[in-house]
Amino acid sequence: MKENRANVVIVGASHGGGEMASRLRQGGFTGSVALIGSEPYLPYHRPPLSKAFLAGETTTEQLLIRAPSVYADSKIDFHASTTVEAIDRKKHGLRLGSGETFGYDKLVLATGGRPRRLTIPGSELDGLHYMRSIADVNAMREVFVPGARLVIVGGGYIGLEVAAVAVKHGLIVEVVEFAPRVLARVAGPELSAFYETVHSKAGVRLRLSTGVEGFEPSSTNPAHVGAVRCSDGTRVAADFVLVAVGLVPNIELAAQAGLEIGNGVEVDEFCQTSDPDIFAIGDCTEFPLPYLGRRWRLESVPNAMEQARVAASVINGKPSAYAAIPWFWSDQYNLKLQAVGLSQHCDEVVIRPPRSPEGFVVFYLKESRMIAADCVNSILEFNAAKRLIADKLVLDPAALADPAVNLKSLLPAT
Ligand SMILES: Cc1cc2nc3c(=O)[nH]c(=O)nc-3n(C[C@H](O)[C@H](O)[C@H](O)COP(=O)(O)OP(=O)(O)OC[C@H]3O[C@@H](n4cnc5c(N)ncnc54)[C@H](O)[C@@H]3O)c2cc1C
């Protein structure tokens, strides 16, 4: 059996894994680096999958985060379409799907997550789609045509982004959401109401407080979905369905190797797992978020990049702990949402009148300090909010709500 080996082996070749390899080299790492990914592509931008790529405005090549030559030039040994099946911690080795082994000195798990699958009656029917990869979007292309009836299960960011692209493309779109408002898991009620209005005006039908009980076959093709059966007894006709009900972190490799697992692979502020030679980064990790003062698991590109920076700094001998305040963006129609911080623990909400009619700004405070902000088409407010949160200043809500007050004037002079 062939034995491969590298000083650092990274499992998962996406936002976290690709950034990790790059950061190692930028930090002066001269040892061998292998990047192993189960997808057939070099690391690519995942956010456009539900936006420009689905809309057909971006090609697969344009999705690549770095040009292929960058990996060769930086001596990053890339293994596409290769799945790691097991970790042997005692031997410092991996078992690949091909049966080959791969030795490491340091291992970085950047395995991300996969869409949560539904297991209700009819889930096995054809025509049910999920969205995490280029392959998932390509599988939907043929049916993503004007006039097709699309039912989206789940009114989170991915569901709503797909709804926006689909309705613009001439599909008939219905979103079925179990919670009483869209974005219930990630945003405050004010932002949910804003997006509900936007989508309704665009022609998306929203069914809130409605569960999905099962999928029914089409009358012309019993192997294919034809309708979605809802908890209120209604049946929504569908030519195809997108299930967008969240993510399951890929923790199995780590769990099987006996690493500590919480709501993800458990790591410390240096992205170190319970094994000193194994790091974990990105969507698959649960980690201490200093700004919140508690452990958390985040699904966002900026977080995967920050954790890659941290893990690389440790391997390069210049440890620098996780320090970022989480942020995220979402594009729907001509609206760019930029959200910073986590609003769940706020005790006061301040709405600031936006500068443009299509804008929206909401600040979340706790004990008079800003902990989060959701800014739609409001980059100046977003940039100011990032600093106001980081500086932990005591703020006057009336000043925040007053469009005549320049937010910069609330910041300490630099
Ligand atoms: C449709 C969509 C839209 C999004 N939009 C946004 C957005 O607007 N803004 C934002 O900040 N974030 C967005 N996200 C989330 C963002 O893409 C993720 O946070 C980010 O991709 C996390 O990167 P990661 O490297 O941790 O994991 P992933 O991107 O999930 O990558 C993990 C990789 O590891 C591979 N892998 C897993 N197990 C193995 C194994 N055993 N062996 C080999 N390879 C393995 C997987 O195949 C995958 O390629 C979006 C995600 C999706 C799906």
Automatic annotation (TrEMBL):
It comes from the Bacteria. Residues 7-308 form the FAD/NAD(P)-binding domain. Its cofactor is FAD. Coiled coil: none annotated. Pfam families: Pyr_redox_2, Reductase_C. Residues 327-411 form the Reductase C-terminal domain. InterPro entries: FAD-oxidoreductase/Apoptosis, FAD/NAD-bd_sf, FAD/NAD-binding_dom, FAD/NAD-linked_Rdtase_dimer_sf, Reductase_C. Keywords: FAD, Flavoprotein, Oxidoreductase. PANTHER family: APOPTOSIS-INDUCING FACTOR 1 (PTHR43557), RIESKE DOMAIN-CONTAINING PROTEIN-RELATED (PTHR43557:SF2). This is FAD-dependent oxidoreductase.
